[in-house]
Fold this protein.
Amino acid sequence: MYEVEALLREYDHARAYTDELWKDLSPDEVTWRPNENSSAIGWHLGHQAHVAHFMIRNLTAAEPSPDPELDGLMDSARPEKFRGALPTVQRLTEFRDTVAERVHARITDITAGHVAAPAQLTVVAAHLLVALINHEYQHDQWIGEVRSNDLGHALPGDPDSNQVSRLDGYLVLNPLG
């Protein structure tokens, strides 16, 4: 099994790669949609954070949402044609940062043994982080496609990590074994 602390660092690397894909874009580019049946880069950014919070909340700690108004909008069950009215880039950034802080806080509580079942939750935390990392990279692929194909911006190089490779064109955390 992966070490949880190493996975938390890989989660940070994945988030940093996401930032490379969008932080230099204008607010109009972040909220632009190729058509009504596609999602803007901003939706993917909010969705990545929404899923991270949802998984932390439901698998390790019952925490309230850091921005309940975004929960319905950033849920992938919402049809793409209804994903148009996005919050500001600042609000998306704050949401992403707050969720990342909560992921760190909860995982740190688990690894420090400040939970009722630390051994069991360590197993859960490791699998949860693998899923969060791969989910971050999954949406990075789509963000990158819009960035390069539709907006005409160059893509950054792949993350500098020996723990990440490409599978079916997507960045993924290397499997164990």
